[in-house]
Request: fold
Amino acid sequence: MFLLVTAGANAELLVVQARIEGIGCASCLESLPERLKRIRGVEDVKIDPQKSTVEVRLAPGNRARLAAIRDQIQQDGTKALEFTLDASGELAKEGDEWVFRVEPQVFTVKAARGLTPGVKRLGGVVRQTAANPMIIELTSQ
Reply:
C-alpha cells in the first residue's frame, strides 16, 4: 500500500519505535521520556517495559535525527536493538539502489520492489544506526 504525501510536505520522522534491552532501574525508566523530549520536535514518548519498546511521536515539521533518538536512549547503558520508522521523505533511484531521504538522513532501501520515485510516506525497520547510509527494510509502502 502506498501512502502519498503532498509534494509540499516536509521530509520528517513521524513515529519511531525502538526495541530496547537493559533498561533495568526505575530511575532510568523514569528519566528516559524526559531525555527524549529534549530533542526538538518530540511530542510524546511512551515506554512499554513489558514489550521492551519505546515509542517516540514527533511533531509536524520536525528535523529530528534517528541518531539523536538512539543516543538519548543509550545514554544510561540501555541498548537500542532496532528501530521501526514511519516517515515521510523523498524516494529516489541512485544508480542500482533506492534511497529514502528524510533530511538530514539518508537511508538505503532494502527489499525495494515496485517502487516509484517521489515524495512518499513509508514504514520500515532500521537495525544498524551506525551505518552510513543507514539501511531501511520496508514494511509498508
Summary: Helices lie at 26-37, 66-74.
